[in-house]
Q: What sequence folds into this?
């Protein structure tokens, strides 16, 4: 086996499995992050070298190791955790909440840990405004004064309709409705931190609709979606990646020893 193939296989193995360890560590670090989606590293084998000896007509193909192909994010449903806070929402099923970024573009999230700002807007903990509809289905203009004054009486049903019960009023007042977006390939979304994602060509165009209708999940109030990280699975993968990294290091060390022995034979 040519020395360059040994070096290539060992070095690419070290780089690839180190990346895998880093991704697994990030998953474990976010095990308590609301709306976090676990990631995996996928690998491709590198180009093969083809050799033919003068005394043999058969080709011999020798690999040059593996390289990371992509970091794939899995959008499986996470468990729901009850919080008792009226402005906490979870999506049970498909769909992302929509929020407005500072540059005016839309981001998508499964983290429904919202709050009412001092001016009456429904926002994320970072102050990003949540996209809402009016009771008539038109885009809602925030702030909503009734939301600020009656947050404790806020009730949201499975369809995402938001109601409050103002003091002295006998019937609930509908303020608006939450809206969800789904993608044909959510694994293609671009993670930008804080459990937020940007749309991409790979993810496909967003389909926007109402919760608890065909193709869209339902809203669960006073609950949040936990990270879909399995600690047992991550530690199992971590052990495998660490062992593979160690074997790659040993292969390089063995090559160094072989070269040293060969040099000594010449003396």
A:
């Amino acid at each position: 086996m040519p020395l360059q193939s040994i070096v290539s296989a060992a070095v690419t193995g070290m780089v690839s499995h180190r990346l895998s360890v880093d991704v697994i560590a990030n998953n474990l670090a976010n095990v308590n992050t609301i709306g976090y989606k676990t990631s995996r590293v996928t690998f491709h084998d590198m180009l093969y070298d083809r050799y033919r000896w003068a005394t043999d007509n058969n080709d011999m193909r020798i690999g040059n190791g593996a390289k990371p192909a992509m970091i794939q994010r899995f959008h499986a449903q996470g468990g729901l955790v009850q919080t008792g806070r009226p402005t906490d929402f979870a999506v049970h099923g498909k769909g992302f909440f929509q929020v407005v970024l500072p540059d005016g573009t839309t981001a998508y999230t499964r983290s429904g840990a919202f709050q009412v700002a001092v001016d009456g807007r429904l926002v994320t903990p970072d102050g990003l405004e949540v996209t809402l509809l009016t009771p008539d289905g038109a885009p809602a203009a925030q702030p909503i004064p009734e939301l600020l004054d009656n947050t404790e009486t806020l009730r949201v049903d499975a369809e995402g309709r938001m109601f409050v019960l103002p003091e002295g009023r006998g019937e609930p007042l509908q303020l608006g409705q939450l809206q969800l977006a789904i993608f044909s390939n959510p694994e293609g979304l671009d993670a930008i931190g804080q459990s937020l994602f940007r749309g991409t060509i790979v993810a496909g165009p967003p389909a926007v609709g109402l919760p608890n209708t065909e193709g869209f999940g339902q809203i669960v109030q006073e609950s949040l979606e936990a990270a879909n990280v399995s600690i047992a699975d991550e530690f199992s993968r971590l052990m495998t990646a660490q062992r593979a990294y160690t074997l790659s290091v040993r292969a390089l060390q063995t090559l160094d020893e072989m070269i040293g022995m060969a040099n000594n034979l010449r003396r």
Summary: The chain has three helices and 22 strands. The mean pLDDT is 87. The first helix runs from residue 3 to 29.
